[in-house]
Write a structure and sequence with these properties.
Elements: H1 2-21, E1 36-39, E2 43-45, E3 53-59, H2 68-79, E4 88-95, H3 103-114, E5 123-127, H4 131-136, E6 146-150, E7 156-161, H5 166-181, H6 183-186
Helix pairs in contact: 2-5
Length: 197
């Protein structure tokens, strides 16, 4: 009897915790959870960028260069006026839980990479415990990288896990440009003429 009670209690705890804290998938069309992430000078939440569209790049340091093509394409789209830095906030989040390096090494390497595309005016954040990867995604354990487009209401409009092909990069940038043109987003440009920042 005592063993049965103990077994049922443990089983109940496991079931309840899986509902409350289990893995959930970020899906297109659904609101992105409001994470709290550490930045260089302060902590940020997903709600820290009101009235901004967000390009969210979740980086696995083991695969840090796999989507360098996307960063270059985003930089080019901003320089060429296809995307406006006044509407978009680039957010780069490093999943520090996938490597054993000390924090200062991770920070220094990430800052070095960020200097390669200053036009993005990207915000660099750190997920030291891999919370986003552990709690909100179902990804390959060898690669936790992920790119998302998040609208100003916090809804995921596009998501891509892992490396992108050249065609996928072009489609991602085109989708970002289309989202920017939507009336509720284009009004964020204010006095900017010809769609250029």
């Amino acid at each position: 009897m005592k063993k049965s009670f103990y077994f049922i209690s443990i089983l109940t705890c496991i079931i309840i915790s899986s509902f409350c804290y289990g893995n959930r998938t970020i899906e297109v069309g659904k609101k992105v959870p409001d994470w709290l992430l550490e930045g260089e000078e302060k902590d940020y939440r997903m709600t820290s960028w009101p009235n901004k569209l967000v390009i969210f790049n979740y980086i696995d340091p083991r695969c840090k260069d796999q989507n360098i093509r996307v960063v270059g394409a985003l930089r080019d789209a901003i320089v060429n006026g296809k995307l406006s830095i006044n509407i978009w906030q680039a957010v780069l989040v490093v999943n520090c839980d996938t490597v054993w390096y000390p924090r200062f090494i991770i920070r220094n390497r990430a800052k070095e990479k960020l200097t390669e595309a200053p036009e993005l005016k990207a915000l660099l954040l750190y997920d030291y415990h891999g919370d986003i990867d552990k709690k909100w995604t179902h990804r390959d354990t060898k690669n936790s990288s992920c790119l998302m487009i998040i609208d100003k209401d916090g809804v995921c409009r596009a998501i891509h896990r892992g490396a992108m092909s050249k065609n996928q990069v072009e489609a991602f940038i085109s989708l970002a440009a289309e989202i920017q043109k939507e009336p509720e987003n284009y009004s964020l440009l204010g006095d900017i003429k010809d769609g250029k920042s």
